[in-house]
Write a structure and sequence with these properties.
The complex is a heterodimer of chains A (222) and B (141).
Chain A (H helix, E strand, L loop, with lengths): L1 E5 L2 H7 L5 E7 L2 H4 L5 H17 L5 E7 L5 H4 L11 E4 L3 H10 L5 E3 L1 E11 L2 E6 L15 H4 L26 H11 L34
Parallel strand pairs in A: 2-3, 2-4, 4-5
Antiparallel strand pairs in A: 1-6, 6-7
Helix pairs in contact in A: 1-3
Chain B lengths: L7 E6 L4 H13 L6 E6 L7 H9 L4 E6 L10 H18 L7 E5 L7 H16 L10
The chains are: A alpha/beta (222), B alpha/beta (141).
The structure holds iron/sulfur cluster (2 copies).
One iron/sulfur cluster binds next to helix 7 of chain A.
């Protein structure tokens, strides 16, 4: 899922300073699962925005809402339920949600309440770790299912850089060297010789280096 | 010292506040429990959501505190640990709003009858009298 975390409240209060009525808008997708922008977080942020405004002696009306998803036109359309009740939206969805609202509501001001950080999973209660970088040309079949693009600090494709120590990455003693993990895993799977294959120079265009990406599924677009 | 009387809201669990029930408001007062503190009893402090703590500030509290069981002997195992983490989350939010984080505290106390229950109330009362009214009430803006 997409992992995000709330921006410092002071920053969000700054963004909303010019507005009298805001809609704090959560999303029931990824940000609910990673506890950054679901219904509960909307309630907290609404309260904090009111407190921040009160502290400055300002009046602000704060509406609370949560969409099934903010990355889908169909659900963004349901913003009509709050018509006239807000003059800006504070979106707690990932950056995709904020962009969707900006795309679909040309005259509505929308602000991001979270920092969208990475694609990851819940490693433990309250801990999320990055696993994939959406590179558009997956190589996990070559690396034992462990991603060198997202999980190697240098996104190396042909084995370790040589700087790792005690299986930890040279950037930080708490970070695993993913190439060590790939090696150990391939060895366990009796596929160690796979490491000897030289990966060709990569075309990074599918990873976004060729501009914004788009997926078109003709079979679904009748 | 100014004549400011703080509005302090204390959330405490059944177990740490047994004394209150036994003695009643008058009894507590005789023990020196400050009038600035109003008590809200909950079955377990682990049940208190961050939203309830923030709501207390929205309702005009100058400070809020939570009294739960000792960390390693909570009646509901991890209730008071959860409460402590939520108090830290509110401290963080207060700092982000440039408000003194000491306006919210967590205390872990033994169950039953003990003078510490009154002592922490007095400590909060003293501290908040020194800090003055909460900026979140918007009175100084
Ligand atoms: S190789 Fe690319 S698509 Fe596959 S997991 Fe890594 S970043 Fe994601
Ligand atoms: S030590 Fe390992 S994970 Fe770190 S940069 Fe080098 S190869 Fe990548």
């Amino acid at each position: 899922m997409i992992i995000a975390e709330r921006k410092p409240v002071g920053e969000i209060v700054d963004m909303t300073r010019d507005h009298k009525k805001v809609l704090v808008l959560g999303c029931r997708g990824c940000v609910t699962v990673c506890s950054a922008g679901g219904e509960r977080e909307v309630e907290l942020l609404a309260s904090l925005i009111r407190l921040g405004a009160k502290k400055e002696g300002r009046k602000i009306e704060v509406q609370e809402g949560t969409l099934v998803r903010q990355c889908d036109k169909e659900y963004v359309d349901s913003l009509d339920n709050w018509k006239g009740k807000y003059d800006a939206i504070v979106s707690m969805a990932c950056g995709v949600g904020v962009n969707f609202i900006a795309n679909l509501r040309p005259t509505t001001m929308v602000y991001p309440a979270v920092n969208t950080t990475f694609f990851g999973g819940s490693a433990d209660q309250g801990v999320w770790t990055e696993q994939c970088a959406g590179c558009g040309n997956c190589v996990l079949h070559l690396t034992g299912g462990l991603c060198p693009v997202a999980r190697c600090a240098k996104s190396l494709m042909n084995g370790p850089c040589g700087g790792s120590q005690n299986a930890k990455c040279e950037i930080h003693s708490e970070v695993d060297c993913i190439w060590q993990l790939i090696h150990d895993r391939l060895e366990r799977l009796d596929r160690k010789e796979q490491m000897l294959e030289v990966a060709p120079i990569r075309d990074w265009r599918p990873a976004g280096h060729g501009g914004p990406r788009k997926t078109l599924r003709d079979d679904l677009s009748v | 010292m100014s004549d400011f009387t703080p509005n302090i809201k204390a959330f405490c669990c059944h177990y740490t506040s047994q004394q209150t029930c036994a003695e009643g408001t008058e009894g507590l007062k005789q023990d020196g429990f400050p009038e600035s503190v109003s008590l809200f009893r909950v079955p377990c402090t682990g049940k208190i959501q961050v939203s309830a703590l923030l709501q207390a500030f929205e309702d005009g509290a100058d400070a809020v505190y939570v009294v739960g069981c000792p960390v390693d002997s909570c009646h509901n195992v991890k209730g008071s640990q959860r409460a402590a983490k939520r108090v830290v989350a509110v401290k963080q939010a207060l700092s982000e709003l440039d408000v003194e984080a000491e306006r919210i505290e967590m205390f872990h106390l033994e169950r039953g009858f003990h003078p510490e229950f009154v002592a922490v109330a007095q400590e909060m009362d003293k501290k908040i009298k020194e800090l003055g009214p909460s900026p979140l009430k918007g009175e100084s803006a």
